[in-house]
Amino acid sequence: MPYSQSLNLAPSLLSVLSRYLIHFERRVKREMKILIVDDNQDLAFLIKCMLEDEGYEVRSAENGRDGYSAYLLFDPDLVLTDIQMPEKNGLELMREIRFHNPGVRTIYMSGDLSQYEPPLEEEKEKYHVGVLEKPFSKHELISLLSRS
Q: Taking the model in full, what pTM does it have?
């Protein structure tokens, strides 16, 4: 093949490779399953949409009791849970989930983290835990997910 023809193939080869890499990156993210548990269903829906746009597989539940059932059915890699909820709070939920999977990654979120400082510090010492104070940005969430 003449040199001039091989130069014409280079851009198309780069295009194919870049599409493959983008597809691969999205596929890797998609393999991470996230369960959102929050009694504020509007917020849960917004977070779910943000994470799905990033390529994650996401399910949600509206309280700790439903979150536990959803965990058993969905088997997520990470649980993003509000702390203060009816039925069962996020800390109680994670205690039950850790009975099945002590290594499940967790991100707690709350509008008032100060009242949960002692149990959250204990969680951080024992498990792979992140914390977000509401309101938080998409950037803060994605950044914490990449470290989780």
A: 0.79
